[in-house]
Write a structure and sequence with these properties.
- The chain is mainly alpha-helical and about 130 residues long.
- The chain folds into two domains: about 1-70; about 70-134, no CATH class.
- It has five helices and no strands.
- α1 runs antiparallel to α3 and α4 (about 75-100) crosses α5 (about 115-130).
- It is flat, with a radius of gyration of 18 Å.
Length: about 130
Amino acid sequence: MTCNKISSAGRRYLRRFVPAMTGYVVVLFASLWVIEAYHPKGPLLWLLGVAPAIPVMGVIAAMGLYLMEETDEFLRTVLAQSMLWGIGITLGLATAWGFLENVDAVPHFPLYLIFPVFCGAFGLSQPFVKRRYQ
């Protein structure tokens, strides 16, 4: 994907990613609104509580499919290594935070923020992985 040219795999990724992220935002706000307005109980509350995770799983699937479908070996290598760094950083931070929570040294960290932490670590690692090959 040099010179701002997006590969066919990149276009497919965007066609999957954008609706999944849009769905996430819509489902998140809708479920929060319904919970706040109607105070559901039981299975409906569980369904509304987990509903935003479904489009997030779509985003994860889009990322994985993109990695498999991209034909540019350099870009695929950078993405795979960046994902590994993102996973490693996320797991390391979550583990350390969990031990600190265990001894009441830090407040509870909401688990729904783990994916955004991974995305941040994944994104921040990409320039360093690319630089390694220059």
